[in-house]
Amino acid sequence: MKTAIVGTGLIGGSLALALKKTGFASNIIGVDKNPDNLQKAMSLGIIDSQATLPEACQMADLIVLAIPVDAIYYILVEVLDKIHERTIVVDMGSTKSKICQLVKDHPKRQNFVASHPIAGTENAGPEAALVNLFQGKKAIICEEQRSSKPALELAISMYKTLEMNIEIMEPEIHDLHIAYVSHLSHISAFSLGLTALDMAVKEKDMFKMAGGGFSSTVRLAKSSPEMWGPIFEQNNENISAALGEYIDHLIAFKKAIDEGNTTRTKELMEKAAIIRSKI
Amino acid sequence: MKTAIVGTGLIGGSLALALKKTGFASNIIGVDKNPDNLQKAMSLGIIDSQATLPEACQMADLIVLAIPVDAIYYILVEVLDKIHERTIVVDMGSTKSKICQLVKDHPKRQNFVASHPIAGTENAGPEAALVNLFQGKKAIICEEQRSSKPALELAISMYKTLEMNIEIMEPEIHDLHIAYVSHLSHISAFSLGLTALDMAVKEKDMFKMAGGGFSSTVRLAKSSPEMWGPIFEQNNENISAALGEYIDHLIAFKKAIDEGNTTRTKELMEKAAIIRSKI
């Protein structure tokens, strides 16, 4: 199967490595608007050839979009317009409602599978690609009834090849849930980073004391702004609600601390500890 | 050297395992107000014998306090009152100002070394003890000039045996820095847990989508309320300031998202990413 991957960074690069290793694709065509990424992906053996997006639309049987969600939104209609009748397109974006809404009446909607493999690291670019990035993780497919049977089967087969666990859900549910269990975590990390960096301007040695707890909570602050800006934009309502609730919990915590109410801080912590059974 | 460890949970248990493994102490006397912990610590081979606190004060050459900071505050004067002239006491609490203030004029202040090994996990109890918990981490010693030379040398020797990197600093600086690089991280995690759990009441399947990012940011929410409540109480001013600044950053992030200002969210993320060079 001729497979084109649009976006040869962390996600696209990891996909290419895994699809080649498993034999799902013998040959990967890389598409990237960033020529540096393409060159790195070629020299790392992640992709086998490169093409422009219109060329890939002509050549490939499967086109996977592994680019920021604003870029998916920007090119998806053009891609569906240009592909052959049997070409299948799968996106890997971290938001689903706006993307599904965009193409819901497109004549080639059935050629498209809206999906989100929940995998990543805080690093970016082809050199961050990991062959086992997807292994054992969840892959979400949305609006499966709008994809043709062959398109859906191919996407499922690809994710099973990656050893992912597939869940089917509606895009609105996906976007609501992911706001709370991923998008909010990123904003909490970015804001922790900002808070600590502000204080470190005065307190130069402060990071000497940072241990595993700090690293763990702030790690995601290293994530790519190019990827995350558009996610926050496309999922703004859910994220804003989650963030508002998060701020309310922090204000309640601060109030208990300011009042010296340790009974209350302990109650809040006991309640939060129920998360033990969930993750 | 006869070594008593007061508190046989994660920290005290890990210390006991490491001191025995390295031969620093051949025999560990365990002290714990919780008889279950003592029994578990005995049966796991973490401690060799058990004693009451007054007994330990009579028997030991070195007494290490590995208990919550309110308990340290509560027993430290009594311990210094009861020990022999040459007995050395080291505390491992995560706050230092209040504890140092409490004993600054005690006639046996020189027998005491105020310290904080920056190591831990989100788990608690003797069964969570890890022999290499401290390895490669930082140990902070405060007000070193108030400890006698033999006391300071013994504490440093103990931390070096654990392969820790020792830093000397004033208690006020310790408490300020640790608020930003540890205590705040814990509150961010507890509040993330509370936010997600609230939504999960309505959205039962939500945690299906939780991946590595969520786990990483929320892991500390599993930490012991018994340990953390008193830390928040003793370091309340620094934590309240840090938490206030964190909330301000989150509000700024929310405003940018609500306004659809992706240029601004990207700016905030670019700035936060400087944390890359700090951890």
Could you walk me through the main structural features you see in this protein, from its secondary elements to its overall organization?
Two copies of one chain form a homodimer. Chain A is an alpha/beta fold and 279 residues long. The first copy, chain A, has two domains: 3-169, Rossmann fold, CATH 3.40.50; 174-277, 6-phosphogluconate dehydrogenase C-terminal fold (Orthogonal Bundle). In chain A, 52% of the residues lie in helices and 12% in strands. The first copy, chain A, has eleven helices and eight strands. The radius of gyration of chain A is 21 Å and the shape is globular. Chains A and B meet through helix 7, helix 8, helix 9, helix 10 and helix 11 of A and helix 7, helix 8, helix 9, helix 10 and helix 11 of B. Chains A, B: Its EC number is 1.3.1.12. Chains A, B: It comes from Marivirga aurantiaca.
Helix-and-strand structural type of chain A: alpha/beta
Order of helices and strands of chain A: EHEHEHEHEHEEHEHHHHH
Nearest-angstrom radius of gyration of chain A? 21 Å
Mean pLDDT of chain A: 96
- Which CATH top level class of the largest domain in chain A fits? Alpha Beta
Shape of chain A: globular
Range of strand content of chain A: 5-15%
CATH architecture of the largest domain in chain A: 3-Layer(aba) Sandwich
Number of domains of chain A: 2
What are the low-pLDDT stretches of chain A, counting only 5+ consecutive residues below 50? Answer: none
Count every beta strand of chain A, where a strand is a DSSP E run of 2 or more residues: 8
Q: What is the helix tally of chain A?
A: 11
The oligomeric state is homodimer
Give the fraction of residues assigned to helices of chain A.
Answer: 40-55%
Q: Let me know the CATH homologous superfamily of the largest domain in chain A.
A: NAD(P)-binding Rossmann-like Domain
